[in-house]
Amino acid sequence: MRLFIFLLLALGLFSCSSEKTYQSNAARSKQQYEQINFVELMKKYMDKNTVNESVEGIYSVSLVVVKKSKGLFASEAKERVVLQKDNFAQVAIIRDNSRNNREFIEIPIDKNYLPSYSIRGEFTSLSEGNILVLKHFEPKGKELIYSFTFDREKDILDGIGTETNGGVIYTYKLTFAKLYPKKQTVATN
Predict the structure, then answer these.
(1) pLDDT band for position 34 (50/70/90)?
(2) Is 28 a residue whose pLDDT tops 70?
(3) pLDDT digits (tens, 9 = 90+) for 135-188
(4) Sign of the Cα pseudo-torsion (151, 65, 143, 176, in order)
(5) Are 81 and 64 in contact (CB under 8 A)?
(6) What's the burial of 180, exposed, middle or buried (CB within 10 Å: 0-12/13-18/19+)?
(7) Which of 7, 15, 118, 121 has the largest count of CB atoms under 10 Å?
(8) What span, in angstroms and rounded, lies between the C-alpha atoms of 48 and 155?
C-alpha cells in the first residue's frame, strides 16, 4: 500500500513539474532562431482570417453550476448556485476541416510551453452558425453536451448543459467571451 501511495505522489509531482522542466530547458538553451509560443501562433493563424464574424478565436471562459433538488420532506425543488468561476480558463476555438463530424475544436491554452495541447471539445453548428453544439470531453471518458448561441455583435458564446445524478439536476452555464481577434469598428463620417 505504501508503494502504491508513493507511486501516486511521484506521478503527481512529475506531471506538475513537466511544464516547468520544459520551460527551464527552453530558457537555458540558446535558440538560434526566433521562438513563438502556442498563443502567439494562434493569434497569427487568426489574423489571416479576413472575416471577424467567425466563431474562431481566443476566449475567456466563465462557469455557473446550479443544483436543483428536492429535500426529503419538501414539496418543491430548490435551486441554488453551487459553483461560480469567472474567467477561470482560456481556450482557443479553431476550425477543423480534418474530420467530418466536427467543425471547430476547443483547445485549452492556459499553460504555455507544453509539448502538445489536448482537444477538450468539438463544436458543430446547427443553423447559420448562430446555434452550436459542444461535445465537451471530461476526465474519465465522460462527455457533456452543451447547446450554445453565438452573439456575433458581442462576440460571446452562451451555453447550457444539464446532467442528472440521482434525483439531483445540475445545470452548467458556460460563457465564452472572445478576447482575440476583436471586432474592428468601421469609422463613419
Answers:
(1) confident
(2) no
(3) 999 988 899 999 999 998 999 999 999 999 988 999 999 999 999 998 765 555
(4) positive
(5) yes
(6) middle
(7) 121
(8) 18
- Alpha-carbon Rg for the chain, nearest whole angstrom, is 21
Residues in Cβ contact with 110 at an 8 Å cutoff, skipping those fewer than 6 apart? 89, 90
d(CA 153, CA 5): 52
| Number of CB atoms found within 10 A of residue 59's CB | 24
Task: Give Cβ neighbours of residue 39 (< 8 Å, ≥ 6 apart).
Answer: 58, 92, 109, 112
pLDDT digits (tens, 9 = 90+) for 91-125: 999 988 776 678 999 999 988 778 888 999 999 98
Q: Which amino acid makes up residue 46?
A: M
